[in-house]
Amino acid sequence: MAIKVVSFDVWGTLLDTDKMFNAIISQLSNTLGIDVDRVGNILLSVYSDVKDLRRYGDVDGFEIVMLSQKMLADRLGIDVERISMAIENTFSSIDPNSLLYSDTLSSLEILKRLGFRIGIIGNTVFWGSICTRRLLRETGISRYIEIQVFSDELRIQKPDRRIFLEFCRKLDVKPYEVIHIGDSVIEDIGGALSSGMKAIYIDRNGTTLGGARYIAIKSLGIGIIRTLNDIANIIEELS
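^ HAD-superfamily hydrolase, subfamily IA, variant 1, sequence as received from the core. Prediction below:
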């Protein structure tokens, strides 16, 4: 079956999660006067715990933003309002283009020229989708995007297959006509495959590729890439 739609995860796929986290960590450290390494370790531990809650469906997509901020505040021993303010200040001060991976815009341009419809299926943690949507506009990503679906708006999170199926419903396409690209094996690849989509895992460190440029397993509808520059090639092999 021909692929008509390409859906993307945002953080770790189109925008650099590590740079965003580092900016928030620096903001919190400077504001609170707490050692930057301590803040970083606490933020990453909260992130890990919240991802587990998200994956097992123990909290919905809207509540998880408030919960993650509350968990971070509790472990730092401060009021949650200071977390919210630090995150807001970070988004106001950061250069949006510094968060772009070098292959993001060029790959979206190629997909658009090839006639693919493009969308976003994103989860949220420490900040809501309103912040991510703003960055997508400011970086120029949104001009390639037909639809954006976020967990805090639907109150459904990846890997729950329902968020992928809702994406398909909004675009009036069948799951087998969509290929999803993301950096989480469980949330992106597992969720997409469970809905009937094909899936591409982006492994920017190349640890799963064993020296190969990319891997396509057509019988399973799965691909692995290190760079978004190989999307067009792997879609062709998986179609």
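The longest strand covers residues 117-122.
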